Structure prediction request, 360 residues.
Amino acid sequence: MRIVRLDLHNIRAIRVAQLQPASNLNFLSGENGAGKSTVLEALHILGYGRSFRGRVRDGLIRESMPALQIFCEWQDANNQTQKAGLKHAGGDWQAKLNGEEVGQLGDLCAAFAVSVFEPNSHLLVSGSSEYRRRFLDWGLFHVEQSYLVLWRRYARALKQRNALLKQKNLGGLLDTWDFELAEAAAPVLWYRRSYLDGLLPYLQQVSEQLLPAFGDLSFELFAGWKNEQMTLADALLLNRERDLSLGYTGIGPHRADWKLHFSNKSKAEAYSRGQAKTLALTCLLAQARHFQQLRGEPPVMLLDDFSSELDGKHRGRVLDELEATGAQVFMTGVELPAEMQGREVRVFHVEHGQIHAPEF
Ligand SMILES: Nc1ncnc2c1ncn2[C@@H]1O[C@H](COP(=O)(O)OP(=O)(O)OP(=O)(O)O)[C@@H](O)[C@H]1O
Ligand SMILES: [Mg+2]
Prediction:
């Protein structure tokens, strides 16, 4: 997708702003607190229903205003124009997609594929397993139509089982929901494994460019319970006492994890922050390429303050890789990094919540 127009109202320091981005690289420059990241947050809200810095109700709406508004127009892979509008008051919201009211924010998000790299993205590598599950599930939601339904079935079974555990319900109902949970888990696991299998060649390609010294790459997927030789149904039964005392289900695909291993890096060796960021970028760029292969177009890439903690060599390599994906990119930074000079880039200057368009 290529965003051709973005209108913003009442988001943080931005009262009203409009942006007509280039189809490739866009850079938002300006002083600290100018409102650069806010523009990326607005795009993130359309893609995820929330900002990468929190929910709409957590301070995104401009002070003393009732709601924020975002309007976006883009071209899809078939060069068709699509339009989305969102008015969000923190709790209540209204959205339209191509003129039709949207019933669930998820329907808007499904049409609006944006991938984000932000100052906390190293957590994809060094944070809890939740970040890595989110990465997998985002990819699957967008490339595998049936995944959302399968995931919802699992989430529903989990909720039911947890409710029974809280009630200390030891009747046959717990057996029924154990069975349903195990049944629902199987396709989720299968899709996650096959997604990582499909992603691996892209991860290898990108890591050869960004982290050549690390060597060959492989992945390890942890299904979400200790002894994976055992079926989830058996593991649930074995874990029942513990789950009853916890009051929730402690094992299953909602606890899954995955890790990348490199032939030239021992498993015990920790990554530096810059390495973790580069590795997170490797994952996002590989995901964008894989996405493009399956969907016919890459997602829009948002990179907030990407140059901090990456050295010049790695910045240059990341920019080369971004160009190779052919994605539309929105980056922010106090000033244009030296590695970007001489590249085809549209620079917008942001100042006190106003976006100044470049002169052509
Ligand atoms: N709810 C709000 N209402 C009004 N202004 C807000 C609100 N929330 C944040 N701000 C202001 O908006 C600005 C936040 O902008 P943003 O985080 O986009 O800046 P930035 O240009 O990315 O800065 P940096 O270079 O530090 O990353 C700050 O000046 C902040 O004080
Ligand atoms: Mg910022």
Remarks:
- Residues 36-37, 304-305, 332 surround magnesium ion (ligand 2) (CB under 6 Å).
- The first helix runs from residue 36 to 48.
- DSSP finds ten helices and 14 strands in the chain.
- The domain at 1-113+299-311+318-360 is CATH 3.40.50.300 (Rossmann fold).
